[in-house]
Amino acid sequence: MSELRELYQEVILDHNKNPRNRRAQDSATHKADGYNPLCGDKVTVFLRVEQGVVRDASFVGSGCAISTASASLMTESLRGKSVEEVRALFGRVRSLLTEEVEPDIEALGKLAVFSGVREFPMRVKCASLAWHTLIAAVEGKEGHGSASTE
Amino acid sequence: MTKSGIDLARVREDFPILAEQVRGRCVAYLDNAATTQKPRAVLDALNHYYAHDNANVHRAVHVLAERATRAFEGARGVAQQFVNARDPREIVFVRGATEAVNLVAATFGRTHVTEGDEIVLSVMEHHSNIVPWQMLCTEKRARLVVVPVSDAGELDLAAYERLLSPRTKLVAMTHVSNALGTVTPIARMIELAHARGVPVLVDGAQAAPHVAIDVQALDCDFYVLSGHKVYGPTGIGVLYGKLAHLEAMPPWQGGGDMILSVTFEKTLYNTPPHKFEAGTPDIAGAVGLAAAFRYVTGLGLAHIAAHERDLVEYASRELARVRGLRLIGTAPDKAGVVSFVLDDVHPHDIATIVDQAGVAIRSGHHCAQPLMERFGVAATARASFALYNTRDDVDRLVAAIADVRKVFG
Description:
The complex is a heterodimer of chains A (150) and B (409).
Chain A: H1 2-7, H2 10-17, E1 30-36, E2 41-50, E3 53-62, H3 65-78, H4 83-98, H5 105-108, H6 124-139, E4 144-148
Parallel strand pairs in A: 1-4
Antiparallel strand pairs in A: 1-2, 2-3
Helix pairs in contact in A: 2-3, 3-6, 4-6
Chain B: H1 8-13, E1 21-22, E2 25-26, E3 28-29, H2 40-53, H3 63-83, E4 91-94, H4 97-112, E5 118-122, H5 131-140, E6 143-147, H6 157-163, E7 168-174, H7 186-195, E8 200-203, H8 215-218, E9 222-226, E10 237-241, H9 243-248, E11 259-262, E12 267-269, H10 283-299, H11 301-320, E13 325-328, E14 337-342, H12 347-355, E15 359-360, E16 362-364, H13 369-374, E17 380-384, H14 391-408
Parallel strand pairs in B: 3-15, 5-6, 5-7, 7-8, 8-9
Antiparallel strand pairs in B: 1-2, 4-10, 9-10, 11-12, 13-14, 14-17, 16-17
Helix pairs in contact in B: 2-10, 3-10, 4-5, 11-14, 12-14
């Protein structure tokens, strides 16, 4: 059970049960759909970016606890960040999920709760779906992007 | 010895991987609908073939070529017996059920389906028995007609009969649903289709390990199966086709072995089954598959089916007692599969948690997304059984689901 507790930390269970920012945004400047064809998980990420700074971030979609909590915690972590900072944070999260390096806990903040995912390689895509979708939204500029885990 | 006549202790020893330690315990492998484990007889057959008989088939005159050819064609004979085909020429070796469906769609389908025609299939089909037909329909401007299922997951036979129309050119129907375990009334469906002159392809990928197949009694036009789901190696499968169809069908892939003579002006094609086996086939795979068929036949499919029926009933009963658990697919006639969802816990989370207890189940859409939509779920958790599973495997699954509750509260 101990590895499971590492994976399913209280923060993750809480965000799964009560996802933050799970809503569509009519006034989004950036939007992308993410899809994991292996499991069918879907997420849409909405961003309102003004003068290069994220003013609002939200998502809609359904998936497992890991993917829902990841989307929820991600949207919480974006507000007030510049697009450059968002990209940098994506890089940190990706290395947290996939690399055997000591995570930068300070820079990651709450997102460090996903450190346990690395021990479950089959679940990395669950945690990274929202983030890939986020980057697709950012890269899609004003338009509508899409991301896939494959 | 179980009531069904399977000596479980003995058969479990036939499968080396069942002794594999996963997280400190022997694995409770309940993902058999994805692929089955292989008995030593199959591993030995593969090894023996490569150690003693390996050469290419059908051409060279040396002794190894003769042995390899005999082993390969012998395997065809075993496959013929396994599905009770009339003639070994009706057995085409393919990579698996997926390739078999694609082969029929690209040859028989292309010849028979034209604009405005309809292909009838069920909402429970595996994607491999949907997408090849959809591709054909796009090409030919034909359309798919989908037979619904009841809330229990039973095929709606009355709807099926209504949906057969003068435009129906083919029925492509599963024998056993991979996601729900439902056994379809396939014999009756074939009868109804034939009464209207409509040929039927049966997707037997999920039926082959659980149900005795008799293509002559069914009178189906095509029957497809994957070797790896019936204890054989991956990469080998069987397409059964009535000889008259196989003779009339155009070839599929071009290459060696499927020809009689080649000039740059014209090629004369070989006769079935070689017409459909271009290139060097998976000889070792066919040999391994024959060993698997012999193994299954040796135990007796009736005994295997009875044992698995007991497991499905036991698992359904035990799982139904878990608070918040809902079984998806409760048809009276089921084979090998128990699908379920648990309150608001996603099946992936269930599968990860029970995996920590060494219990292997599948979670997801099971390559049957239209069916998931029919039941209003994104995914299910699925336990699927084989001849070597025990009630203890089921107990371990049920105990591990209690851990899900511990984690999710």
